[in-house]
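Quick entry, no commentary yet.
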Amino acid sequence: MTTLREVLKKNNVAKFLVNTVRFLKAVRVYNATGVTPEYGYNSARYLYFATNKLSHKLFAAAQNFADRKNRVTISNPVGILGDMSTANLKNFMQNLREDGFHRFGQLLPPDMCDDLLHFALTTPAKPRIARFEGKIVYDRNNLVANLYDFDAQSLLENRSVQRIITDESLLSVAHEFLGPSVRLQNVSMWWSNADFHNVSKDTAAQMYHVDMDTIRWLNFFFYLVDVDTHNGYLVDVDTHNGPHVYIRRSHRQAPKSVYRDYRIPDEEIAQVFAPEDIVELTGPRGTILAVDTLGLHKGKALERGERLMLTVRFAVNNFGAGAPSKVQINEKFSPEFLAKIDQNPSVYRRGYF
């Protein structure tokens, strides 16, 4: 007797229809419960590539239509990104939509970098290694993994993180890019280190890939240590401690041979993209990037040294993998911070808070 699995392997039309039904069912479950079934997440990934991105565009448009009455309040769009008022915002959006990434000219203030570095050297983190229980403080002289992840509760209790996620210049960009459905979807920070060996580049996201955690999003990356910089400019030589690497314009157009699900080896990328389109985004401590990670990208494998990175992601909803879980509000959340998130509940009160 022929099984459904066997039919789906041989019949692409049947595979498409089954995944469409599963995806729509999962959307109903998500809308009712806020939880995405695993089958729905897998079907969403399949449909994204099968429809040449159309499925996600439609879902994002439907979410923005449903949330069209949301009001995002931005009193002063000047902050850690600089002045993100109308004219500057328009120029930024043009760069982001054209290339898929933007490196801001303004750096995260030194006091915030210092605070986050101190946090990262004193707060227990989870080594990204199988079967490791618990958390430990990162010790560059006694490594047990090449990646250490900080949990959301600890991160969001940090005052500098609170300042960043409620910064109105950041929110201005996210709102302009995503529309009225914009919400804080993920905050993460991790250490990467070159001195721990036997590393899986796949697990460490050090092979080219397209992010598919949710439906539509924008990532902000903050370098909290120098990442291969020379006088603060982008360089393409001796990039040894893990710059973010992005294929320029691949969020808009890329051959299907490499624009596919899962990881893509460097050799395949080199065969279809010009060297000048493979951009290694370097910069000094405090560098801020905005990246549409629907484009092909990776973290370059560290050859020596270490890297500390903070990522803030805004999205149109929490459908998919890695949806935020509620954090416990305590005395480490200042009244000023709580007032800011209450000023924009549709952005902040539909995830961590």
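second:
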Amino acid sequence: MIPLTHEEVLECALEQQQKMDEHKYFKSIEAEHDVGKEFAYMDWIINYAKAWRDAWLQRREERLRHAAQQSQNN
């Protein structure tokens, strides 16, 4: 695997933060009260973070492969 650039680390962190915020929103709707960041974030980390990061890294690898193919075609 090619190491992540600084920009990619920031992109991943921001997207992950957005997913955790969305999770908090939906958990709060489900509970009919604000469940709080700590609960929602821990729940997301325990239940979804690994699969989300694996998928994010897979999409990154596909983008890199596609970019390499495009540069070879030019």
